[in-house]
Every structure is written in C-alpha cells, then in structure tokens.
What does this fold into?
Amino acid sequence: MQHFTAHLHDEEGTAALGAALARALAPGLAIHLHGDLGAGKTALTRALLHAAGHTGTVKSPTYTLSEPYQVQLNGRAVSVIHFDLYRMSSAEEFLDAGFREDFNGDNICIVEWPEKADGVLPPPDLNVFLTVAGNGRDVELQASTALGNSCLQRLHFAPNM
It folds into this structure.
C-alpha cells in the first residue's frame, strides 16, 4: 500500500496539500483525519474543498457533526461530506444519526476524530495523520485499500521547502 510523509512548514503548506489531495479524489473515498486540536484537520479539509471547486464558506461541523458540499470531479457532481465527531459521546450516536449510509460508492467522506465512532465507522481508504511540529505540521498519509492506494498514486505534491 502507498505511504506518503512530509513536513509542512506553514499554513500555506497545509493548503497546498489540500489542493493536491483535491486533484487526487475519487468518488467513494473515505478519508480519516487524525491529530490533536489545532493540528490542521479542518484547515486541510477547507483547502481541499476550495480546490475541488466549492466557492462558499467551509465551516467546521463541530456542532452539526456533518456538512455536505457539492463539487465537480471530472465533470461529475459529487458530494463531499465533512464529519467532525469530536462532540459525540458514543459511537452509537453515529449510527443513530444515519451517517453510515453516507459511506457509499458515490460520496467522498472526510472524518475528523474517527476514533469517536470506533467499531461502527466504515474503515478508511486513506488515513491522514497531522502532528504539530514547531511552526508547521508533519503529515503522514497511509492508504489502506485499493481506492486509497490509487488516490496516493495520483497525488502530486512537493512540500514547501
């Protein structure tokens, strides 16, 4: 399986990675974002959505738990659903909300705090680990399925030096 690591020196590096990921997206992709508060999970998602063509505001779904966005990928309308599970008190809340149905071959699901729904959250195609490192971030991307592997094969990103 594909694996990618880089050091992002600043917020512009995070935005550039989000833009590169947007160019590598495919319908059906499930991305789990891991990292402490302030590690850049929402900033990465915001950059990805804007690069994928969303022109409006991208707000953190901390209180709503999910926010859907419509983008065009290769001329096809695709829903990108951004989940933030930080405020969930149990994995059952994920099931009760009906979120599992969003994970299908058509939508792209990006999940912050996936550990809050351990055991019920569909497995990721791609894990993204963000860690604060000085003024920047260390990032690691790990594919765990063929779809995640093909996403990383399409990823063209040179970290800012």
In short: The beta strands are 3-8, 30-34, 66-73, 76-84, 108-112, 126-133, 136-143. The chain has one domain: 3-155. Residues 20 and 83 are 20 Å apart (CA to CA).
